Amino acid sequence: MAPMKVYGWAVSPWMARALVCLEEAGVEYEIVPMSRCGGDHRRPEHLARNPFGEIPVLEDGDLTLYQSRAIARYVLRKYKPELVKEGDLEGSAMVDVWMEVEAHNIEATLWPIIRHCIIGQYVGRDRDQAVIDENLEKLRRLLPVYEARLSVCKYLAGDDITAADLCHFGFMRYFMATEYAGVVDAFPHVKAWWDALLARPSVQKVMAGMPPDFGYASGNIP
Amino acid sequence: MATSAVKVYGWAISPFVSRALLALEEAGVDYELVPMSRQAGDHHRPEHLARNPFGKVPVLEDGDLTLFESHAIARHVLRKHKPELLGTGNLEQAALVDVWFEVEAHQLSPLAIAIVVECIFTPFLGRERNQAVVDENVEKLKKVLEVYEARLSKSKYLAGDFLSVADLSHFTIMHCFMATEYAALVDALPHVSAWWEGLAARPAAKKVAEFMPVGTAGASKKHD
């Protein structure tokens, strides 16, 4: 069977979401590298794969998928259904709840901080401390909820790791490389949860392709 | 009659709360809507935070299970009662449902919601409409809708030739959007327009539309 293909740049936190799930699935896959600064995602051949012109895109035989969480669900449902609690009505509902919490709260809050603290300096954008502070405030209101949750169960959807936890990885990776990691570290159960994620071989493997500066300083501009 | 085992907490005029109600209507499940007041700050009260620590609506109680996030609620209700609407049992179909369910949430709705907030809800928020925000989101929405038009030219519904939660998930936000003057964006696209008409004609959609009286200003002539 031909290996799955994932199109995109490995430093992307959205790409990381897909890659972590592929690693957890233990399935053979190949990354087809694309250049963001070269505008590969806007070329016709990519728009034919994803008309929204974004990455990652997964090809599995004749099936072409986009939207990183849809890719995550597909890969895990196919190869590691326990990671989406397939067949378990209550379990899968909890996975869905915390995937949505991440989608609507975490990504939206961490990405502006990451853009201003890490990326801005390389792309000629002045750091906007007001944006950073506004999002840190939101994060400071979210983290106590995570802390309370992770005080009653080991992972977000219950006592087993699931897609809900894995989907947090990419954005957390970069946020924890900013000077504001202490905001998370102040919450012991959240910190322990993050450390447990970091210890997973799948996460280690994907992190190896995600330098904390997105590759800008070394000239590997995404 | 016994109280329903299924309760939804929130204000039904919210397209998020009504997304949950639509899933229940499509599933044919008995439920009770427990009305809450946004203005009175019911969602910040301890009894609500005990249900949803993020202090948002909707919340679904289904027996012992308490869920929040409207997309998660919709998935649960349909997984339990109408799994075919998730493409369950067919990996490829389920994947395409997931793709378009995500597209609704992350490509279309943020734009449509921004337009709806400015055009319909600013009086309730005590501020003036920000036309620059509307214009910026209308431009982006035009491009997104072109992708939908291309997709719906190839298949009857978003995930394929079968109706799914991906289609249904659009109804409540589009119901609000179609009450703005920008409904013309949809009317201009024959396949999107026909798909929208089909969604809005469903009995469950008509029922839920009654919970969201956002007015008919700007509604398409086709709706008369």
Task: Report on the architecture of this protein.
The complex is a heterodimer of chains A (222) and B (224). Chain A contains ten helices and four strands; from the N terminus they run βαβαββαααααααα. Chain A has helices spanning 13-25, 44-47, 68-79, 89-119, 129-152, 163-166, 169-175, 181-185, 188-198, 201-207; strands at 4-8, 29-33, 57-60, 63-66. In chain A, strands 2-1-3-4 form a four-stranded mixed β-sheet, with helices on one face. The longest helix of chain A has 31 residues, at 89-119. Chain B folds into two domains: 6-85, Glutaredoxin; 87-209, Glutathione S-transferase Yfyf (Class Pi), Chain A, domain 2 (Up-down Bundle), CATH 1.20.1050. Chain B has ten helices and four strands. A four-stranded mixed β-sheet of chain B has the order 2-1-3-4, covered by helices on one side. In chain B, α1 crosses α7, α4 (91-125) runs antiparallel to α5 and α5 (131-154) packs across α9. The longest helix of chain B is centred in the middle third of the chain and has 35 residues, at 91-125.
Quick summary:
The complex is a heterodimer of chains A (222) and B (224). Chain A has helices spanning 13-25, 44-47, 68-79, 89-119, 129-152, 163-166, 169-175, 181-185, 188-198, 201-207; strands spanning 4-8, 29-33, 57-60, 63-66.
Topology, pairings included?
The complex is a heterodimer of chains A (222) and B (224).
Chain A: E1 4-8, H1 13-25, E2 29-33, H2 44-47, E3 57-60, E4 63-66, H3 68-79, H4 89-119, H5 129-152, H6 163-166, H7 169-175, H8 181-185, H9 188-198, H10 201-207
Parallel strand pairs in A: 1-2
Antiparallel strand pairs in A: 1-3, 3-4
Chain B: E1 6-10, H1 15-27, E2 32-35, H2 46-49, E3 59-62, E4 65-68, H3 70-81, H4 91-125, H5 131-154, H6 165-168, H7 171-177, H8 184-187, H9 190-201, H10 203-209
Parallel strand pairs in B: 1-2
Antiparallel strand pairs in B: 1-3, 3-4
Helix pairs in contact in B: 1-3, 1-7, 1-10, 4-5, 4-7, 5-9
